[in-house]
Specification:
Elements: H1 11-15
Length: about 15
């Protein structure tokens, strides 16, 4: 997921 260059930045806080 994080490796994807088109991943959504909104997923960052969700992952944390």
């Amino acid at each position: 997921m994080c490796k994807n260059s088109g991943w959504s930045f909104s997923s960052i806080p969700k992952k944390l």
